[in-house]
Amino acid sequence: MPAIAHMILPHCWVCKVRFNDQHPPGPAVEERHHLVPQAYGGTDGPQVSLCDTHHTKLHRVANALKAGKPYAHLLIGESHDRQKKILWMASLVVKADLATVNDENKATKVVLVLDRQHQQLLDLCK
Fold first, then answer.
1. Angle at alpha carbon of residue 116, lines to 111 and 121, rounded to 5°
2. End-to-end CA distance of the chain
3. What distances in angstroms separate CA 86 from CA 44, 46, 68, 89, 126, one per listed residue?
4. Which of 79, 87, 93, 110 could hold 62 in an S-S bridge, CB 3.0 to 4.6 Å?
């Protein structure tokens, strides 16, 4: 695959389906994928426009690759060209993960559920 600076498009780079915020609108919801994910330092790096379906699919494939699990079932129904694009982007996610395995600055996603009282206390800190 070619190097991509930014590929912000009016349609999904994988399936070419037009986004719903374009004129004329299409059926797809746009999500911008960082080719090097933000959690691995890709905050300012190149991005590509994807539909929400293919964005989710590429991360599922990347997770399967990282875990050494099968992923072919995730690509059923995709053309050879689409499979190549998804696998290429998923491989970049895996490479970024491997490059930051022991990096103490690697971002970690944390989800907290707060009750109303703690949310109000947190809001007071703003």
1. 85
2. 45
3. 21, 16, 17, 5, 40
4. 93
Question: For residues 73 and 51, what is the distance between their CA atoms, to the nearest angstrom?
Answer: 19
CA angle 49, 53, 58 (to 5 degrees): 75
Percent of the chain with pLDDT over 90: 56
On whether the CB atoms of residues 53 and 27 are closer than 8 A, the answer is no
Helix axes 80-99, 52-67, angle to 10 degrees: 60
Say what the pTM is: 0.76
Cβ pair 14, 68 in contact under 8 A: no
Q: Which has more pLDDT, 13 or 116?
A: 13
Residue 14 to residues 22, 25, 33, 51, Cα–Cα distance (Å)? 17, 18, 12, 8
Partners of 19 in beta bridges = 28
Helix, strand, coil percentages (3-state) for the chain, rounded to 5, are: 40, 10, 45
